[in-house]
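wait is this the right file?? whatever heres the structure
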């Protein structure tokens, strides 16, 4: 998966058994992707899904890599502005809960959101967490 923010393109490629890179499909988006997280598929063996958070918008992009199915997890509140997070360009990170975990976390300006990767939807919001843009999962979730 590679991101071209200028063209608004997420390019999905496959690496074959021989190590060759082949184009699978492209997704056109105006989300301006900040960060991506991969998660093992809960419906297909040896497959992955990708979640992408937005630099400017309140939605998270979900892509089922095996089929190209795209879904939006909506209304996760406004992210930090890029200039409010000078440490790197990921003003809205997204982080999985471990190799076999089903949850992901992404912040907004004043909250943390826990997403359910199995159901591809919002699980809960933790409020009154300002600038919570550093995430560490402890233990298995």
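ok assuming it is, sequence goes like this
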């Amino acid at each position: 998966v590679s991101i071209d923010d200028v063209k608004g393109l997420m390019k999905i490629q496959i690496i074959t058994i021989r190590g060759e890179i082949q184009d699978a499909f492209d997704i056109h988006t105006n989300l301006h992707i900040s960060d991506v997280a991969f998660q093992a598929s809960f419906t297909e063996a040896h497959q992955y899904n990708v979640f992408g958070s937005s630099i400017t918008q309140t939605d998270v992009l979900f892509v089922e890599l095996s089929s190209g199915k795209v879904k939006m997890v909506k209304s996760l509140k406004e992210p930090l502005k890029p200039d409010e997070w000078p440490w790197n360009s990921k003003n809205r990170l997204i982080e999985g809960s471990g190799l076999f975990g089903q949850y992901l976390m992404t912040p907004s300006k004043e909250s943390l959101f826990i997403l359910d990767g199995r159901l591809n939807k919002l699980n809960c919001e933790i409020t009154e967490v300002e600038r919570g843009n550093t995430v560490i999962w402890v233990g298995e979730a």
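DSSP finds no helices and eleven strands in the chain. so i think its the right one actually
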